[in-house]
Amino acid sequence: PDDNQYKLYCHGIVAMALCESFAMTGDQAIGPAAQAVLAYTCYAQDPEGGGWRYKPRQRGDTSMHGWHVGALKSGFMASLEVPPIVVQRASYYLDTAAVDDGTGYCYTIEKPTYGPATSAIGLLCRMYMGTPRDDPALQAGIEKLVKRGPDRGANGAYFNYYAAQAIFQYTSGEGPLWEAWNEPMRDFLIQAQEIEGHEAGSWSPFAGDGGSHVEHGGRLYQTAICCMTLEVY
User: Fold this and answer.
1) Nearest-CA neighbor of 63 among 73, 72, 77, 51?
2) For 103, which of 131, 141, 171, 186 could close a Cys bridge (C-beta 3.0–4.6 Å)?
3) If 0-12 CB within 10 Å is exposed, 13-18 middle and 19+ buried, where does residue 177 land?
């Protein structure tokens, strides 16, 4: 339907896939499509608040923000055109969504409370946009994610995916912080993978994982997000 709230989620994910494919292959059949999808990403940004949400130019939320900033970063890495003003606005959105002295990020600025998944998203986006590793708020925020550890509950796969990315980007996959996160995360995901019958190789939704992502995406979503978590490094 026209009011489907997942359209711009899908757009952000497709944009990332196209930009990363172009960066990896240099295939000129992909480049124009990747640039076109990035152009729509830029158009869909809220020109005042700097975020993205369900409809083009709607006031943003941090969950949606992560996919589109990720697409912009992938486009930049692929040497595609990313207007600086779009990045500046995206950074401004993060300023407005920051909580707990910048160590966390809320879902929407109307409810400025710490969210584990949105905090992982916000910290990752900060690094994408150049925040240095010695930034005190970034360091404290990453340490909070590591202390929390992998989430085995409701919508846990979504948190795990973004936390894995944020912690890997911060640590480069080395040292005690990364090991404290990665070892339990890796072992949990491997143990949770189905190994028998027609479901072999997939992941079932985690116990109590009744969030909207799983309700709409089911086993396919859960399997994709778990694979992407393991693929981070």
Assistant:
1) 51
2) 141
3) middle
SS3 at position 70: helix
Rounded Cα distance between 194 and 216, Å, is 20
Place of tokens 């900060």: 126
Classify 203 as helix, strand or coil: strand
**Which class for 182: exposed (0-12), middle (13-18), buried (19 or more C-beta within 10 A)?**
buried
Q: State the residue for tokens 């090991």.
A: 179
104 beta partners:
99
* Range list of β-strands (E), the chain: 98-99, 104-105
CA distance 79 to 216: 34
The H or E element containing residue 193 is none
**Closest residue by Cα to residue 80 from 37, 45, 130:** 37
**Chain segment 201-211, per-residue pLDDT in tens:** 999 988 655 55
The residue with tokens 């949105």 is 118
Which tens digit of pLDDT belongs to each residue from 22-45?
999 999 999 999 999 999 999 999
d(CA 132, CA 180): 22
The rounded distance, in Å, linking the Cα atoms of 39 and 41 is 5
Q: How many CB atoms lie within 10 A of CB 162?
A: 26
Confidence (pTM):
0.94
Interacting residues of 50 by C-beta distance below 8 A, sequence separation 6+: 60, 88, 89, 90, 91, 92, 93, 96
> How far apart are the C-alpha atoms of 68 and 4, rounded to whole Å?
17
